[in-house]
Amino acid sequence: MSMATLERKTKKPKIQLGNKGESGMFTDSSPESRRVIPPSQDTRAKFKVVYVVLESQYQAALTQACNMINQQQEGVSVECVGYLLEELRDPANVEKFRQDVATANVFLGSLIFVQELAEKVVEVVSPLRENLDAAVVFPSLPEVMRLQKLGSFSMASMGQKKSIIGDFMKKQRMQQGAKFEEDMLKLVRTLPEILKYLPSDKAKDARSFMMSFQYWLGGSPENLSSMLLMLADTYCKGIKGENLVNKADIVAPILLPDKGIWHPVADQIFDRPSAYFEWYDKVHCPAAGIDVETAPTIGILVQKSHINTRDECHYTALIADLEARGARVVTIYSGGLDFSGPLEEFFYLNGYPSVDAVINLTGFALVGGPASQNHEKAVKVLKKLNRPYLCALPLVFQTFEEWKKSELGLHPVQVALQVSLPEIDGAIEPVIFAGREGLTGRNVPMSDRIDLLAERLLKWATLRRKENKDKKLAVTVFSFPPDKGNVGTAAYLDVFGSIQEMLGNLKKDGYDMGEIPESPEALMDAVLHDKEAKYDSPSLNVAYRMPVDEYEKLTPYHRDLEEAWGKAPGNLNSDGQNMLVFGKQFGNVFIGVQPTFGYEGDPMRLLFSKSASPHHGFAAYYTYLEKIFKADAVLHFGTHGSLEFMPGKQVGMSGTCYPDRLINSIPNLYYYAANNPSEATIAKRRSYSATISYLTPPAENAGLYKGLKELSELVKSYQGLRENESRGPSIVNSIVASARQCNLDKDIKDLPADDFDTKELSIDGRDALVGKVYRKLMEIESRLLPCGLHRIGVPPTAAEAVATLVQIATIDRPDDGIKSLPRIIAESVGRDIDEIYANADKGVLDDVDLLYRITEATRAAVGAGVAQSTDSEGRVKEVKPVFEQGMTLLQGMMGQASPWKKALADSGFPNAKEESLSPLFEYLEFCLKQVVADNEMGGLLQGLNGEYILPGPGGDPIRNPGVLPTGKNMHSLDPQAIPTKPAVDVAFKVVDRLLERTKADTGDYPQSVAFTLWGTDNIKTYGESLAQVMALVGVRPVPDAIGRVNKLELIPLEELGRPRVDVVVTCSGIFRDLFINQMALLDRAVKMAAEADEPTEMNFVRAHALQSAKELGLSVRDAATRVFSNAAGSYSANVGLTIENGGWDSEQQLQEQFLSRKSFAFNADKPGEMSHQTDLFKASLKTVDLTFQNLDSSEISLTDVSHYYDSDPTKVVQGLRDDGRKPTSFVADTTTATAQVRTLSETVRLDARTKLLNPKFYEGMMKTGYEGVREITKRLRNTMGWSATSGEVDNFVYEDANDVFIKDEAMRQRLLETNPNSFRDMVTTFLEANGRGYWDTSEENIKLLQELYQDVEDKIEGVKP
Amino acid sequence: MTGSTGMGVFVPVCLNAAIGIYLCAAFQQLPSPSLLSRRSPFSSTLSRLRTARFPSSVALSASSTVTDAPPSIAPSAIESSPLPDLEPSKTDAVVEVASIPEHLPSEAGKDYRPLACMLAKQDFKEADQFTRDMLIELAGPGAQMRKYVYFTEVRKIPVTDMATIERLWLHYSNGRFGYSVQKKVWKTCRADFQTFCSKVGWSKMEDGIERLRRWFGENEFMYDLDKAPRGHLPLTNTLRGTTLFKEVLNHPAWDSDVLQEKLF
């Protein structure tokens, strides 16, 4: 009988892919399919092996190893069954696993690094460990490592007390990075040699472990067979000592070198690049038809274990595809998890980089793999190599079919490990290029993804090799909402000014630019043609008319768009016969206008847009860029566009996802606002962009104006006259009257009536009253607002720099030993700043005043510092170093005071301590350098040169100056790192404050709080709002052994000291995309609370869950579903869109939209899907008596963007509650040093006063012209959004706004002339606010608005000049 | 059998032998009565050929590639792939007597008579396997060691041999199977592999998802002239991407005049 026949008999593969769909999990594969059983009637001594691994590539190799044993051995046979780690999420599999371990002789585990699954493994194996003959665990979490059992060898102390391995894994993740793995390898390499000569049993067992590890790392079926036979021979009952194993088959581990250059066709591993190229260039390339002289070279990183286990088909596929396209490749592997060394060793030839682009096919971070990363080290070597760095990944936990079917796309665990972490290294383009074949577990390539990657890699490489004068660049500007007044929209960016700046720089760099327009206005005119025309009319400049047949020929997926849009050309971006591409070409640079979604005005689509596709015009635009204009790269100009939000999977695009189809092969660069890392991350993952961050304009103090300014003068004069019996009270009377005029009575509840004479109050009473007014004024005055728009490539003005640094100076940084400037100043007068803040909050007049003086002194001191580096134009181009070594010391010795010390003295604080000031100002100087060192233009030029764009975090430069300098490829953070300990501390404080305030106001704790979670918010605060949710339900996050947040513990009621408050969490679509593991954590927290056996009056979560379990016929666990978001691949409630377009009838419609789009529940028990649970969503919202959101930054406040009200459930809850009561809405403001909790209406008023109604704001906006007018209109429209969703906007806000912008004739003329389209929107919004009953005003006002509407309409239509 | 329609005389294999025209079975023991048993003679031929090809130690790894090779996703292998199952051959196995040509040109010195017999017998599964195995041999020692063809080796395969193989396929499938047939379909798909797969039936719909047919476990391909779409056979492995497949379609043989020369 031939071997083959024998095999067929011993192993009969069954196709069994688990119970499809029922588990709700990604992994539908079944361990049964990989069970190897010895032939029946086998009389040999049998041993049984059970394994759990993360790396599926071991599956096939182990199966082969067992088959070999069963065929070759005469005395022993083996039964083997394996579990892929993720399969243990299924309780049925855990049960089978338990049964298998119970009858097993040997247990094997490897890379068990997922906390909750590690716990399951330990739970099963630990009690059965006694009966096992051997348990061998390769690198895993410490608790799993402790299962180790080889005779006397164990790792019982692992992670508990000091031990070699425990030390590697613990804490110092950042410093140690991949050291653990490296050290293990070193150990493995050296130990066996030493141990061989040690006779003791102990050494024998330790040696067995090390040998096993070597075999394991060797990975081939032969090695694994030797390992199993060795283990059986040494440890297994009934086999050991019986001489049953044919020892000839236990051969020494056959190991490939730890690292090397590999090629599928070469018959050896190369240990030097010169040797490789000697063979490659002289033998292989000629045979493959590759022109060595001109071919671009792609560096590829692969995992050694795939080479070992001969599971390398997916690697070979990409290599072959690249070579078939005429490229050279250098493929390197490493056995360890640190690729930095091999990269430096093998990607250079004679000291120069030998590659034009690099792709990492392991899907892991460059240094540290899945265990502990060292991003700094990775960035260092990548920066030195300076090439585009892509990181693609194979599916690990899903089969192709599972992934294809999934709307979420890639499994969340893989997203966390293999998308988020590589991004921190600066990796781009997380394309899934291969997957596991369900039956054999082997990796097979996805042909269309391989093609895509090869094409994209070659284009990146081409950017490096092509001369600038020949490169074609497509610049895409956004236009939203789809109106001409909005072309070139980007958050905080002066788009046309910046493009103008960019064109100049490109020209200098040798690009063929043709004629550059002489000014931003001229540029805008060239693109818009006629500013006043309606957007979708053909009078936007048409760059290209694409006949329908050409469009259809070049757009392979055009038929798929017909379902939603009918046949091409349709009526968007079309003239009825041709597809129209809008824009203007200057030499080799095309500036195009991105088409809009197309369904903005269509209520049905807004409600159900989940399955919508881009329209033909949209597709035609990108077809034009790729196939007709033939762009070498596209640059999307500014935050944000439509491309990255097109329908498709969340992460891990397939070839049918629209972002993927649209961008196809073009390298994509994207200017994104530094304060928006979350959306930037979406752009990176879904539209394959390398982002380049830009600074948002610095925030300045709002200041006071008009009535508020007069009021503040009154307050100041009171301070001199307060003791004057007659004048004191009369000034207070005036203060009261003008405070009322300024509508401050809305904020100061006990403001006396107008006819009340304050003479009747004591002087303390009057002080208290004035203190409250003063405090309110200060709150408005010191509120920060971004002024103007940022222009890329222009250094900041001194005033801008001061504004930024003042904010940086206001934050204590205990980790760096830096005190905030206000704290230092307070200390200089013997006070504690926290106390001053608290007193000022209460309205203690003296402290309000002191705080005011401290704030002024802070500004003066920082100003004095910046003045050192300000040039004659009032800009800071480079920073004059004051802190050069010894200089300050010298100054101190010479008795010279620093400029800031002088400034403080001049402001009345002469005693601030230099030793506190020095570290702070040194830090500020560093920050100033970072602000000035922006690389925004540089980042673009680097990207276009095919270089590596330095990665960096996005977020708030004030909190995290690491965001600076801008011009970086932005990333989010390691999702498993949040919430951090400090974030948890702050969160518990905020929650306490919220609950105290509610208890004080209503006498009770709230039953349930509706929460909105934002991606950016949580990135900036390291998960504060996430932790707030946990605080409410009384659960604490606990970091695991390597510092990741995966565990939770219930805080006992006695420690909590209050009831557990229920929550309803609505996550933004972006939060869902970035933090799906944290959604799981929240869901588990809620379920934990619901299942706690506690009295329901102390546990509202449980009370509500019991109730809805009964009503809806669910288990308590399922009824405790509180974490909701959009359907996968869909974003926002679209309420904002609807309001921006005015296309809605009643608030009911908005609420239904919210309920239908936001009611997709996340369930930690079934993490693979978002299930539509409108009933549960409604049921849980019904009990809400408080709604809550966080404000994380001054530049994005309530009326700056639409998404805060878009997701506000206030009126929705009111509609659902049995008593019809409107819930109280609170907003936590963590933008200032003292976190404030205010009601929504307070916050809306504050926002209106500091922005919309504040001359400093609107005049600043007007200065930037066209875009500025649009910004003002946007604030008004967003204000009306709040009326619609919450009803928390005071009438005076509209009234005052109308006074400022409409009644003032000069003002309205300016608006009309600068941006007629936006002005028309403004007029419409006022009329709409009145029509919908949000604004009650005079007939006269309405009449004026109606007339203006007609005028501006005529003007736009060209009826009137 | 549809292949027989209007195509001359069909006789059982044993008669074939008796008549003394090319004996398909001539490569093995003379067809004994066992020939009429339910076992395909060519399976064992191939087993022998294959065993002969690999020294026994290699045969081990070759056979392990067999069971654990991954190709269940894709039309498998110009690669050493599973030995055909010892499945019952058609009991009424007949061979188109007149159809096995005397001269099957080979520049590489290969013998294509087994292929001709398999095809004549309409045993497409065997023929398919034979073809892939042969391509590995034709591709040279590198491919034989590796057990698959790297795309760069395809151009080394002589036009003569490719054309002979192709002409056999074309002839016995009435022009429905063959690389040149696939090339025509490929062109109509605008070189899109997925479209191609659905056209030639290499993929199928399952639960609303289009997936490639499986090779392992249960072989899902169609070795039947009636059921299989045009261009379904021969299969080419896409386990290592589509480069190899594209290169095969690019072989000069399909456009060469040799292909037009009559074999029969």
UniProtKB/TrEMBL annotation, chain A:
Superkingdom of origin organism: Eukaryota
Residue span(s) of domain Magnesium chelatase subunit H N-terminal: 48-210
Protein's pathway: Porphyrin-containing compound metabolism
A biological-process GO annotation: photosynthesis
Domain CobN/magnesium chelatase: residue ranges: 214-1341
Signal peptide (UniProt feature, chain positions): none
Sorted UniProt keywords: ATP-binding, Chlorophyll biosynthesis, Ligase, Nucleotide-binding, Photosynthesis
Listed GO MF terms: ATP binding; magnesium chelatase activity
Region named Disordered: 1-38
InterPro entries: BchH (IPR011771), CobN/Mg_chltase (IPR003672), Mg_chelatase_H_N (IPR022571)
Catalytic activity: protoporphyrin IX + Mg(2+) + ATP + H2O = Mg-protoporphyrin IX + ADP + phosphate + 3 H(+)
Enzyme Commission number(s): 6.6.1.1
Family assignment from sequence similarity: Belongs to the Mg-chelatase subunit H family.
NCBIfam families registered for this protein in UniProt: BchH, PRK12493.1
Designated name of the protein: magnesium chelatase
Species of provenance: Vitrella brassicaformis (strain CCMP3155)
Automatic annotation (TrEMBL), chain B:
Keywords: Membrane, Transmembrane, Transmembrane helix
Pfam families: GUN4
GO molecular function, one term: tetrapyrrole binding
Bias (Low complexity) ranges: 66-82
Record field: transmembrane: 6-30
Record has Transferase as a keyword: no
Name this protein carries in UniProt: GUN4-like domain-containing protein
The species this protein was found in: Vitrella brassicaformis (strain CCMP3155)
